[in-house]
Each structure stands twice: as C-alpha cells, then as structure tokens.
Amino acid sequence: xxxxxxxxxxxxxxxxxxxxxxxxxxxxxxxxxxxxxxxxxxxxxxxxxxxxxxxxxxxxxxxxxxxxxxxxxxxxxxxxxxxxxxxxxxxxxxxxxxxxxxxxxxxxxxxxxxxxxxxxxxxxxxxxxxxxxxxxxxxxxxxxxxxxxxxxxxxxxxxxxxxxxxxxxxxxxxxxxxxxxxxxxxxxxxxxxxxxxxxxxxxxxxxxxxxxxxxxxxxxxxxxxxxxxxxxxxxxxxxxxxxxxxxxxxxxxxxxxxxxxxxxxxxxxxxxxxxxxxxxxxxxxxxxxxxxxxxxxxxxxxxxxxxxxxxxxxxxxxxxxxxxx
Length: 325
Hints:
single chain; about 325 residues; alpha/beta; eight-stranded parallel beta sheet; 13 helices; globular; disordered N terminus
C-alpha cells in the first residue's frame, strides 16, 4: 500500500452516495463521472461516497470499481474526503485484500458492507468476530460501516458499534436503522472518538442532526443536493425554524417517489434539471413509466419552489464543463 493516511474524523455535513453515469452502450461514462463529481462539490458536499449501492457497485466489475473510485479521487484532488466501498464478499482474508486495493486509489476511508461479514441467519457474535478480524488484517486503514440493504440489511447494535469504534479504526457509519432512538444511542456511545454517523433516512434528518449526527448520506442528494446541504447547515438555526420544518416536511412527503425506480429516477431528475447524464442503469429496477416521470416532474417543481423560497442558487446553471478544462 502506498496511501498511508492517519485515521481522522470526516467533516460534518452532506456526504453524497454517488451515482455512476453510463454511456448508452453500457460502458462507464468517465467524463460524465468527473462532471458529476464537480456537481456534488458545487452543491456544497462535505465529502463523497464513491463506489456505493447508488453507484451500482454490484453491477461493476472489480476493475471498474477501482477505476471509478480512482477517477473520483483524482477529480476531487484533495478538496474534500472521499470514501468508497471495499468489501464484496468471500472470505474475510479476500475482503481485506480488496480493502487494501481500494485504499490504494487514494480514498480517505474504506467502507465495509455489514451484510457481507456474516450470513443473515448467523448471530451478532459471528459478525463481531469477522469485523475484528477484518480490522486486524487491514493494518492502519481507516474504515467505515454501511448497513447496506444488499445482500441483506444487517444492523450493528450500538454497544458493538461502540466497541469497534474504540479500536480507533472506524471513523464513519452510514446509518440505515430508521430508528431515531437507536441513532441517538449510537451517537451517545461513540462520543469522544474520531467517528461520525451519517444518517441515510431523511424522515429523521433534522432529529438526527440535532442528536449529534455528523451529517447525512442519502439518495435524495442525487435529486436535490442543494436542499440536503441547506438542512445540514440550518437544522439548528432558530431564525430559520419555520423553513427547517418546511424542508423536513418535504423530505418526508417525497420519500416514496424518490425511491421509485431508483437510481433511474435520480438520473432522470438530474437530466431534467439540465445535467448531461443518461438514464441508463445496469441494475434491474422498476420501469420509469410516464406516470413516474410525471410525478418526478412535479417533485422537481416543488424543489424549484423551495429553492427560490430559501434563496438557494441553482447549481445547474453553472457551467460544470468549464471547470474541467
């Protein structure tokens, strides 16, 4: 390994789960990926999560995962931290080796899929043993956990999370427990360590941030990233309390449509907002029907109205292509 950064906490704020743009041929659109990286940064992202489920990581080849991650790291050029998934099944020893390969792309931390460290029917004791083994096999590499719904969602008990964080190696957690009381427990038991919990469940966005979450890491950021950044910056602003409630209500009301035919719908919405991206996806998802498109269009109208009310600039009027020259 050549990239030997010291473990450190990640910044507070919005860490997008990145999409992967594809050409209509089905190949990865690497020039589009560079532009997409700039879009997230222009929106105010505090960091980036590359090679994740939204990136269609399970549909990418091993070499594509490495190249996608390396492309993002190079494009970011140190402006914000980048994390990326580094476990894709097999024996823990195999997963550890791939963690090292992903880390060598230059990321700040490698993310471990919780559902790949133990089978669904195995107890937490097996998961804990495998997690400790992975930590020991990956030297000083900063790690994070992602309670990914694929292959199945394995939640980490707060007491176990605390134990693993105390190793000093776990600095990030993408939380999908959907339970604000458990989120609060997780934050409480990990206080004092270089660690950040980033909630993916936007129903609890403001509540999680008020409880001490480091930020948000959600699919909504692939449709309206400016609003996610805004809530991270204003959730505790007493002067904007009414606006905060309005935005939080919008997050709740838009949950169902945002998850429909995802990630195709996110690419469609970006396209409608003026970003040059194909709706091509390798994942098998529901069809983007005319009805779904109509509802997505209505969603974008609401986004535009909220953006204007909040005084947020439209990042899609920026000439992103010029930033790459």
